[in-house]
Design goal:
By secondary structure, the chain is α/β, with parallel strands linked by helices. Helices cover 30% and strands 26% of the residues.
């Protein structure tokens, strides 16, 4: 019991610690322009909003240059760290440039008070409802393909990705989890697992101070989903494993040799690690491409 409590406390610091970004949540919640609920779908980045939990919740949506309203494109939902916002996630990941090249949509939700109510942190909002409302807006207004909806995130946003994989498994085909874990009181419950197969990609650094907790969370996920791990592929800067799970999903894991609490391959920013030996944005998209609903 003491060990479980310690794990929750450690991961709470991981998801919500002020060490990630300068604590400027008030500024991060001020959008560059007033969100417009009704925007004609078109290429570019748009500031949008949906109603969720009795509040107007904001997000950015990026459509590639060749976007046509009749096209059915994949959708990637990118979830930020704490404290942060969608603009910070957009700048960290470089997903817009990849979306322009590969022809997919990207949504960047803004957490209330600079965070998401994930597995162990932060806040009390129903952010599963909020994110699924963002997806529904993208499906009905922007024609996002319901068979190719994905979530990715870092730290607090990574924990939120795991939560979505369980509590919105009918919505997401796969999730990409960077420097985050599967933990907390709900994760410990035997029946807290996806009801529809959701494949998971995870990337964590051996130098992350929460590394042991993240590894324990992965072991819990493997046990719940009855995953059988294949051969380990060792590279100079990382090891890579693929596990096939009992429900037909896949758990793919990258363990970075010299990385801390970071987004590998990001060129700049406090959570960027340009020299980690892997470009997470590219790896995540290739994983998503391979996993349709």
């Amino acid at each position: 019991m003491k060990r479980a409590l310690l794990l929750v406390l450690i991961l709470a610091v991981s998801a919500c610690g002020a060490s990630e970004e300068p604590a400027t949540p008030a500024a991060s919640q001020t959008p560059a322009a007033s969100p417009t609920p009704q925007v004609r779908p078109a290429p570019g980045t748009h500031q949008l909003s949906v109603n969720s939990g009795g509040q107007r919740r904001t997000f950015l949506l990026h459509a590639p240059p060749g976007y046509q309203p009749g096209q059915r494109l994949p959708l990637v939902v990118a979830l930020h760290f704490f404290p942060g916002d969608g603009t910070g996630m957009q700048q960290l990941t470089g997903l817009d440039a990849l979306a322009d090249k590969e022809n997919f949509l990207v949504a960047y939700p803004d957490g209330l008070n600079a965070g998401f109510n994930a597995l162990i942190c932060c806040g009390t909002e129903d952010d599963v409802a909020f994110v699924t409302a963002v997806v529904e807006h993208a499906r009905t207004t922007w024609n996002a393909d319901p068979e190719r909806v994905y979530a990715t995130g870092i730290s607090n946003g990574a924990d939120m990705s795991f939560k979505l994989a369980v509590e919105a498994s009918e919505t997401f085909a796969a999730v990409g989890v960077i420097s985050g874990g599967f933990a907390g009181p709900n994760a410990a419950k035997p029946d807290y697992r996806p009801t529809t197969p959701v494949s998971v990609l995870t990337i964590v650094g051996r130098n992350d101070m929460y590394f042991d907790a993240f590894q324990e969370g992965l072991a819990t996920w493997r046990e719940k989903l009855k995953c059988t791990e294949g051969a380990k592929q060792a590279k100079p800067l990382y090891t890579h494993t693929v596990a096939r799970c009992g429900d037909g999903s896949v758990l793919e894991a990258y363990l970075m040799s010299d990385m801390g609490h970071s987004w590998p391959g990001a060129p700049k920013g406090q959570l960027a690690d340009p020299d980690a030996g892997l470009t997470a944005t590219e790896v995540i998209w290739r994983f998503f491409e391979a996993h349709h609903r």
